[in-house]
Amino acid sequence: MGGDSGLLGSISWENESTYLNAESQLTAMIMRDRNRANVIIWSMANETPSKPARNKFLGKLAAHARLLDPTRLISAALEQNNYQGNPTIKTIDDPFADVVDVLSFNQYIGWYDGLPEKCRSITWKIPQDKPVIISEFGADALAGMHGDSLTRWSEEYQEDLYKETLSMLGKIEQLRGISPWILKDFRSPRRQLPGIQDGWNRKGLYSENGGKRKPSTSSNHFMKTGNCNMKKITWGIIGCGDVTERKSGPAYQKTEGFVIGAVMRRDVAKARDYAERHLVPKYYTDADAIINDPEIDAVYIATPPDTHKFYGLKVAAAGKPCCIEKPMATNYADCIALCEAFEAKEIPLFVAYYRRSLPRFLKIKEWIDNNEIGNVRQIRWNLTKPVSEKDLPGIYNWRTDATIAPGGYFDDLACHGIDLFQFLLGAIIEVSGSGSNQLGLYTAKDSIAASWKHASGITGTGNWNFGCSEREDIVEIFGSKGKIIFSVFDEIPIQLIADSIQSLTIPHPENIQLFHVENMRHHLSGKSIHPSSGRTAASTNWVMDKILSDTDSM
Fold first, then answer.
1. Cα angle for residues 483, 485, 489 (degrees, 5° grid)
2. b/e string for 25-46 if b means 16 or more Cβ within 10 A?
3. Residue 217, SS3?
4. d(C-alpha 45, C-alpha 310), whole Å
5. What is the spatial distance between Cα 336 and Cα 343, in angstroms, rounded to a whole number?
6. How far apart are the first and last CA of the chain?
7. 437, exposed or middle or buried, with CB in 10 Å at 0-12, 13-18, 19+?
8. Is there a contact between 143 and 155 (Cβ–Cβ < 8 Å)?
9. Of 26-30, 225-229, 520-524, which one has max mean pLDDT?
10. Gyration radius (Cα) of the chain, Å
11. What domains does the chain contain, in order, with CATH numbers?
12. Average pLDDT, stretch 507-518?
């Protein structure tokens, strides 16, 4: 699951040479193992008591790990405490919990702390909005030793402890994984109970000879049923076209607690083909049928934008949460109509501006919020692309049909950046634009320029041209002490140029909407507020409308 730096509670936290030694060990481990696919988490420590020197020590170590490998999560096996002095309610109040990405702790109630039945009286109140992994739990047993469930060291005691522990852990809302301690008995010179341990740690699900113990059945059942206290939400997709093949559809299937129950497309052969390839149980050719299917809890609309309002209002009338592909609609007025419809029913409306959830852009926001470039003064975006084969006369493309997308590729692409800029820098309150059709290959605009002002006073400019000799996608954010350079669409390194130069490569997930979809799950479960709502998306449409209205008047 992860790498562990092996730090114990007897560390001399104030000693600089101790820290350098730990950093050296951590560096060696990450350099050795970072290309191993089975490593998903770097663990900083194991059950180290909290105190200021330790917190500073581990904070520096975590920052170093993120610098060496920004692609993996950080954790540590934290100590547990009683919540407000109540011994039946456990909590994590370690300051280092604010640093890690994943909370983890070792759990031995019923072995080192009372009998297995004690698990029934224990509840958990974990205030941090972070996933929880149980890094260790279990009890010792000698293979072949039998007795009742109260006979320590027997397989029956170990089995009963597993059942009680797994039932208790399943009540932790944030629980996302468990790691029994341990898979197989191993040699441990400190374990010297005659006739039982004889130099072996006996907590394995299997004996040192490979024999299976009774708890392995309970553990397997827990893992197969996914007992993590989460209700499944079944989604239906309207418009299973290109965007759903890789960018979004698989993200819904990979998100814990989400399943795709049905898809809809007017072409029955294409709907059937998509359902069969993506293992979706049902398909429809009628949008009303999928929207009103009682087995569908929520609807994702992935059709061209001129139908978003039409389908979205139907979903709102059915009282189901909805995610709409971007842009939210073809104009600001339709966006407001959608927002009001969902707000009247008090149900969530999301829009697929997934860049608000991607780690590379969250890092840029962190730089801005931490004043790494001082006070932000200006933002500038230049996006150019050569003519596409799809633009040739006689080839229909809705993205360049002025009745659907009057700004052409600007409608489809620029909204990503404009929405992202409002996420990073705040709402845009003034905007003007100009544009033309330079190529004459289609009815929509192919060249647009704009300038704007954010509520904070930051100014911005943008140029979008889809008939140039080469592709360029460069954004520069200028501050009083430096600047940030990045791309909206390309996965080039993001750069922070201030007192020094930082260049970070933070890759996108295989399915680029994954974090956006996961954030919808967090929102629907009440854990956090999704960054891309109907209202934030409507603001982006307002900016787009203002730019295009100026180009129409020219």
1. 155
2. ebeebbeeeeeeeebebbbbbb
3. helix
4. 54
5. 10
6. 60
7. middle
8. yes
9. 26-30
10. 28
11. 2-225 (3.20.20.80), 233-352 (3.40.50.720), 359-507 (3.30.360.10)
12. 93
Whole-angstrom CA distances from 407 to 400, 443, 444, 474 are 8, 9, 5, 20
Contact 136, 161 (CB under 8 A): no
Report cis status (omega within 30 of 0) of the bond before 327: yes
Write the pLDDT tens digit of every residue in 340-392.
999 999 899 999 999 999 999 999 999 999 999 999 999 999 999 999 888 87
Per-chain mean pLDDT for the chain: 91
DSSP secondary structure letter of residue 48? P
Q: Which of 131, 247, 130, 176 is nearest to 509 (CA)?
A: 247
Residue 274 in contact with residue 284, Cβ under 8 Å? no
Q: Which residues contact 201 (CB under 8 A, 6 or more apart)?
A: 140, 182, 185, 186, 187, 188, 191
pLDDT in tens, 282-299: 999 999 999 999 999 999
| Alpha carbon distance 248, 514 (integer Å) | 7
Paired tokens of 48: 């180290």
